[in-house]
Design brief:
Length: 115
């Protein structure tokens, strides 16, 4: 359909680059470790200290991954953006276990081409 797929990670640029090389992603992977993009899109949320500690128990060090001390993460989201920079479709769900169905995304991507 002509779309460019871009994934955005909270990992530092170095970490994101290492993941990209290791996994040979077929799409562009960018770093938003400072969370400026997530904040601009209104999808950033702050982890309280007990949650950061709980993540640590699972071996997840949010500071080491991002290289930052802000303790923020983005709500999982998918955006279809037109060449004019306008968001044609967005899916944002604070429940990280609930992901957008690929058939819905495909239908929305096709519909967005008609706008």
């Amino acid at each position: 359909m002509g779309y460019q797929v871009i994934a955005v990670s909270t990992d530092s640029p170095q970490q994101a680059g290492a993941h990209r090389k290791k996994n040979d992603f077929p799409f562009l992977l960018l770093s938003d470790s400072k969370m400026s993009g997530a904040r601009a899109l209104g999808i950033a949320f702050h982890l309280d200290d007990p949650t950061v500690a709980q993540y640590g128990k699972f071996g997840i060090d949010v500071e080491a991954a991002s290289g930052e001390t802000h303790h923020e993460l983005p709500v999982p989201a998918v955006f279809v953006i037109g060449t004019d920079g306008k968001i044609r479709f967005e899916y944002v769900n604070p429940d990280y276990k609930s992901r957008l169905d690929s058939d819905v995304l495909l239908a929305m991507a096709k519909a967005a081409l008609k706008k």
